[in-house]
Amino acid sequence: MLIEQFTVRRLKMRMKEPFSTSFGTMQDKQFLLIEVKDELGNCGWGESVAFEAPWYTEETVETNWHMIRDFLIPLLIGKELSHPDQVGENFSSIRGNNMAKAAVEGAVWDLYAKRNNLSLAESLGGGRAYIDVGISIGLQQNLSDLIEKVRMFLDEGYKRIKVKIKPGADVELLRRLRAVYPDVPLMADANSAYTLDDIDLLKQLDDFGLLMIEQPLGYDDIVDHSILQKELKTPICLDESIHSLADARKAIALGSTKIINIKIGRVGGLSEAKKIHDYCMDNGIPVWCGGMLEAGIGRAHNIALTSLPNFILPGDTAGSSRYWEKDIITPEVTVQDGKIKVPVSKGIGFTPNLATIEEFTVGKWHFTK
Ligand SMILES: O=C(O)CCC(=O)c1ccccc1C(=O)O
Ligand SMILES: [Mg+2]
């Protein structure tokens, strides 16, 4: 498979409503789409999940654009590849910048699957026909809004509710939510808003029968989470702290995490995501697929990854309509009875809608050898 041509587009889409976490609020989303073509005219698509501001990780849309244009595309263009695992090998001279790498690698995975007449899920070794999905609800103005949102998403069939917490919106919020929904599969995501000084507060969360608490401590910490986990009954799930198989191995060895949230962008691509999945499966650590408020292309990649067997817990990959008035793929991602059907057609299994993509495009660049 000859990597002949790239097109990079910058899109701007507005979400139906703002999404708030302990690190900030987003509503307008800018992101990059990567289109790659081989010598036969097959084409593959990838989506960068970096945000405009470096709140979740250090990457941004701008740093991704710089890396993709000046380093990653030059390392791949004109190369003959037999498998997408070779993309990461070609990028091995570049440190970090996982979201930029993942966007390009994802496009090559889609290309590879299409060229070989396989679905992306099949190319990854996934076997599930349907995936279970949960919903991640941002911080709300007040508790009654949150209670109402939870009701709405439960009515839509979502199988697990994740709420965001931060200092000042934690123990009481969960106590009151639990009182209204005593049996709902519930978890909380702190996005690194606490430190070990908050250990007494965090211990109180054990009262609420949470499935897990996601990333309570530092985004770059593995050690303090192991100290905290020894004091908590509730399982810790790491998100921000895991960038690679090596990080997953260390966090598991230290007892810092009992569950891992895998995001393709955060770990540098599907090949690394699959390695983490396999390692966790061998070590009895369940995983689930996190979300980055993706548009349709990124969402399609998440669905394919989630078809792997150790994605035991419902992920954050909700339907297109949870985020967008109009998504950039046909058909859009839909959820029925809390499940998404894994496509069986070639590649990502959703067709990029070029007219809609054009409508949201604010910049477009072509690269040929
Ligand atoms: O619905 C989604 O895509 C997941 C939403 C979510 O929780 C999230 C959104 C933006 C940044 C970080 C996170 C997170 O999982 O921590
Ligand atoms: Mg998270």
Task: Describe the protein.
This is o-succinylbenzoate synthase. With 369 residues, this protein is of the alpha/beta class. The chain has 2 domains: 5-117 and 351-368, Enolase-like, N-terminal domain (Enolase-like, domain 1); 122-341, TIM Barrel (Alpha-Beta Barrel), CATH 3.20.20.120. It is built from 12 helices and 15 strands. The chain has a 7-stranded parallel β-sheet. The longest helix is centred in the N-terminal third of the chain and has 18 residues, at 98-115. The radius of gyration is 20 Å and the shape is globular. The structure holds 2-succinylbenzoate and magnesium ion. 2-succinylbenzoate is lined by residues 21, 56, 136, 189, 191, 239, 290-293, 316, 318.
Tally of structural domains: 2
Could you say what the CATH architecture of the largest domain is? Alpha-Beta Barrel
Q: Write down the overall mean pLDDT.
A: 98
Instruction: Note poorly predicted spans.
Output: none
Q: Supply the number of helical segments.
A: 12
Protein name: o-succinylbenzoate synthase
Function: Converts 2-succinyl-6-hydroxy-2,4-cyclohexadiene-1-carboxylate (SHCHC) to 2-succinylbenzoate (OSB).
Pfam families: MR_MLE_C, MR_MLE_N
GO molecular function, one term: O-succinylbenzoate synthase activity
What's this model, at a glance?
With 369 residues, the protein is an alpha/beta fold. It is 34% helix and 21% strand.
